[in-house]
């Protein structure tokens, strides 16, 4: 075959090859060498974290909601509430359960029954349950976003998706959704209360706290926060909600008096199953009464010492004081009350965020060991060490709550003593 010769030089074939090589170079090789300045640049960590964590968070939420929660569990908190609300709408006695059975029981007050009654308007059980699960799942995400903002971080920061991923890996979130209970919405109420209290919106903070107390009286100790700062508006509005709803509900809830005569006495009993509180553990293991009282009063003193030591920061470091005090009170209720269930620990999520502050109990490794205890989904049951593994699994939240109470209180006392020592030293130097 004859090749046509280009008069300028080279053959036509060479020109074709050169064109191909040039085109390939454009496709496979960057046009200019990467400069040293570009090599030194790094992808912003927040952008990288958001790109990595949000897909993981989304898949965890979908799995927990549409697989685990929709599948359900033997433990079913929702049906107890739903059918009680249906009885309310049908004019049937709400408090008609047999309390010596192990099944979950309806324990809400007449006022809480009235407040939650719209949920019973949905006549299809599966639809109502799915809506309730979704509401709690979204409430958890919203609460974490609110807490992120409370600590001064943008929702575009890495902290927000990281907190969602971490939360959805805990026992508290997983079992809240699987058991279909209201703790996700209560976490949102807690986050709202803390946010409003910090911004000094006293009436609104009290209304939110009042709703939380109406549904779960374990929130009542949080009244200490406005009391310590003489925020009487918050206290008044917090009391007004339970009083108003119970007053309105008493004439319309069928046989409302049964709540006082049948349910309230049951609430005072300590059960020996699915109960991680100190009294529950004492009953389960047959602890001598004197020993139970010793541990009870010891930890009560630890909590009081922590509350007193933290008080000095209510004006100088209000966020640290508010979150640590609330967490100390709530963990104290979980640990010392007649009933403490592991998924209550979701309400301690704000405490974990204090790790971002200059000073925090969460800077202590023991605090994270405690968090593992009351948040882990791990099952330590062992084929080799049967009793040890079973007891270890059963005691994890109890030990976790006890340890976090100690860490918060000791940290607060150490801070206070260190500051007083420093102040005394400065005075001596000045003299």
From TrEMBL:
One Pfam family here: GT87
EC numbers for this chain: 2.4.2.47
Transmembrane feature ranges: 47-70, 127-146, 176-197, 204-228, 234-253, 294-313, 319-344, 394-417
Entries under InterPro entries matching the protein: GT87
GO CC, one annotated term: plasma membrane
UniProt entry keywords in alphabetical sequence: Cell membrane, Glycosyltransferase, Membrane, Transferase, Transmembrane, Transmembrane helix
Keyword Cell division listed: no
Signal sequence extent: none
Protein topology in the membrane: Multi-pass membrane protein
Location in the cell: Cell membrane
Recorded GO MF terms: hexosyltransferase activity
Family: Belongs to the glycosyltransferase 87 family.
Name this polypeptide is given: Alpha-(1->3)-arabinofuranosyltransferase
UniProt source species: Corynebacterium kalinowskii
């Amino acid at each position: 075959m004859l090749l046509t010769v280009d008069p300028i030089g080279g053959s036509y074939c060479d020109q074709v090859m050169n064109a191909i090589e040039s085109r390939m170079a454009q496709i496979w090789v960057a046009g200019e060498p990467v400069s040293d300045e570009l090599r030194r640049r790094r992808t912003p960590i927040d952008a990288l974290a958001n790109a990595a964590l949000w897909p993981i968070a989304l898949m965890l939420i979908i799995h927990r909601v549409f697989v685990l929660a929709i599948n359900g569990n033997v433990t079913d908190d929702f049906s107890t509430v739903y059918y009680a609300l249906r009885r309310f709408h049908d004019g049937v006695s709400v408090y008609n359960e047999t309390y010596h059975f192990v099944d979950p029981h309806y324990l809400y007050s007449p006022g809480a029954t009235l407040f939650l009654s719209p949920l019973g308007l949905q006549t299809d059980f599966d639809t109502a349950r799915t809506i309730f699960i979704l509401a709690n799942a979204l409430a958890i995400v919203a609460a974490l976003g609110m807490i992120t903002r409370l600590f001064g971080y943008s929702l575009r920061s890495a902290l927000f998706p990281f907190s969602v991923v971490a939360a959805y890996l805990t026992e508290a979130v997983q079992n809240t959704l699987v058991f279909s209970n209201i703790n996700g919405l209560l976490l949102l109420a807690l986050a709202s209360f803390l946010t409003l209290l910090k911004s000094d919106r006293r009436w609104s903070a009290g209304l939110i706290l009042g709703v939380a107390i109406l549904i779960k009286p374990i929130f009542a100790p949080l009244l200490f926060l406005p009391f310590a700062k003489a925020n009487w508006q918050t206290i008044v509005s917090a009391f007004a909600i339970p009083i108003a709803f119970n007053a309105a509900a008493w004439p319309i809830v069928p046989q409302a008096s049964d709540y006082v005569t049948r349910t309230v006495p049951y609430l005072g009993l300590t059960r020996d199953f699915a109960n991680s509180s100190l009294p529950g553990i004492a009953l389960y293991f047959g602890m001598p009464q004197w020993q139970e009282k010793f541990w009870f009063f010891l930890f009560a003193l630890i909590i009081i010492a922590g509350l007193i030591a933290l008080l000095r920061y209510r004006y100088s470091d209000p966020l640290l004081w508010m979150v640590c005090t609330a967490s100390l009170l709530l963990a104290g209720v979980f640990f010392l009350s007649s009933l403490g269930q592991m998924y209550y620990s979701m309400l301690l999520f704000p405490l974990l965020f204090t790790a971002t502050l200059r000073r925090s109990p969460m800077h202590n490794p023991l605090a994270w060991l405690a968090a593992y205890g009351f948040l882990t989904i791990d099952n330590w049951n062992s084929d080799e060490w049967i009793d040890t593994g079973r007891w270890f699994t059963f005691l994890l939240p109890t030990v976790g709550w006890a340890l976090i109470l100690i860490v918060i209180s000791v940290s607060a006392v150490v801070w206070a003593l260190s500051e007083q020592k420093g102040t005394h030293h400065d005075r001596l130097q000045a003299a």
